[in-house]
Design a protein that fits this description.
mainly beta; 3-stranded antiparallel β-sheet; about 0% helix
Length: about 55
């Protein structure tokens, strides 16, 4: 599994008065789609059959 370390540039940092509401990722591979969403309330994840377009 690939590891991604993402960081926003200093000019894009959020001020202390604001906070992150949700974060997520969608990863598509042949035959399936993985969706993960994280909020203050918890985390959810779904693995689904890929939809052909």
């Amino acid at each position: 599994m690939d590891q991604q370390h993402l960081s926003a540039p200093a000019c894009a940092q959020i001020s202390p008065a604001r906070r992150l509401i949700a974060a997520g990722i969608i990863r598509r591979s042949p035959g399936r789609t993985l969706t993960v969403r994280v909020t203050a309330a918890g985390a959810t994840g779904v693995i689904a059959k890929a939809v052909t377009r």
